[in-house]
Amino acid sequence: MMKQLTLAQLYLLTLFLSILTLSGCSQLQNKKSDKNKMTTTTRINKSGGFKGKSGLLGSSTGSGGLSGTGSDILGSSSTTGLDSQDINASTLGVDADAQAATDALMAEGKKYTPADINNPKSILSQRIIYFDYDQSTILEKYKPILAAHAELLANYPEMRIRLEGHADERGSREYNVALSERRAETVRQYLSFKNVGSEQMEIVAFGEEKPLVPSHNDTAWSKNRRVEINYVTY
After folding, report:
1. Eight-class DSSP state of 137
2. At residue 130, what are phi and psi to the nearest 5 degrees?
3. How far from 125 is each of 3, 174, 216, 223, 230, CA to CA, in Å?
4. Cα three-residue angle 102-164-136, rounded to 5 degrees
5. Mind listing the pLDDT tens digit for each residue in 186-201?
């Protein structure tokens, strides 16, 4: 009887020691896990944390963090996405050279007035925009001219213009009317991009009906592919 009791006690003692061992291992694992969490939190706090001016998504002028409006992990930026001007500029082919020419006009502090329209020394006296064959894209050399007209129209919203589109005689009459309309529309969009009100502009497409030079050669054709800017009221 004593021997059996001793075996039972030994069994219970062994079981008790096993429970203590498992409990100790669990506590040790929890301590390691807590230590890792503390290390991760420390690293996050050093890099900006979830709050403050610099969050996990990058620098921002706001509160930062996951909901911040600044740059994300793909790169830094002060805004999110493209604005409408960036999209319009790409559509209209506004490049660095044209923008530089416009900026130069603004830097001069030149304020155009309606009197400049009839001044032969003024850039506003240039009111014909020529186009390449079968094209409606505005050439670079004409963008400063359009920028000057846009500045005048934006400063004098009561002024009105008519954009008259033309084409040379090659091609069908219907096609040339559509082409001349596209050319006038391209100029209208460019001026609109430069803050000219839509109510200030109207479009007329003449196709091949009103040639500037009534001849049948390359020189004449190059002069007939055009959009004329006509001031209706000023």
Report:
1. P
2. -95, 155
3. 123, 31, 28, 17, 11
4. 65
5. 999 999 999 999 999 9
